[in-house]
Design goal:
The chain has six helices and two strands. It is mostly helical. Strands 1-2 form a two-stranded antiparallel ribbon. One of its GO terms (molecular function) is endonuclease activity.
Length: 110
Amino acid sequence: MRRRLLAGSQSELSASAAPSASNCCALCEREVQQLSRHHLIPREEGGRHGPTADLCQPCHSSVHLLLDNKELARQYHTIEALRGAEKLQKYLHWIRRSRVERISNRRGNK
């Protein structure tokens, strides 16, 4: 495998070092120390064995704070849809410029 990578073009080499190999949040695209698994369709809505995405803790907490499970299942069941969610725009603008690794659990403050 090493030979194939070395024989490839420079673009192939940089593609192999893409953020997917590191701890990159799927939503805010920041590199963080830890990721948590987010069910794109909430388990309560039948998504127990469905697709998941790795999110940093602040993003995961904020998604569940700002969107309820029915909205997540019906409208925001892909990362692209989550990135486009109107309710998340202000948060995403802030977090992409931030170095925050952890946010207190805010679910009860709705």
